Amino acid sequence: MIRITIYTSPTCLFCRQLRDLLTLSEHSFTEYNVIDEPERLTEMRRLTRGVSAVPVIVFDKDTSDQRVLIGFDSDSFEVMLSRA
Asked: How far is CA 66 from CA 13, 17, 31, 48, in A?
């Protein structure tokens, strides 16, 4: 099964939409709040090569199949899930 990690902030509307979609799906996920956990912001910037915008979605983090999606668009998200 695909592992999904999301980097979010509390005031981000797209982060809430993503979280709601994942909660309703059969996919489990790990969420990191980059405001409450500054070390996660540093980690996210490393994954995105410096981008600070949220949400950031990481599929299969720390594997050879790792894929990173910056921002949330439900169509792009579904495409990434279908490739898993």
From this structure: 25, 22, 16, 12
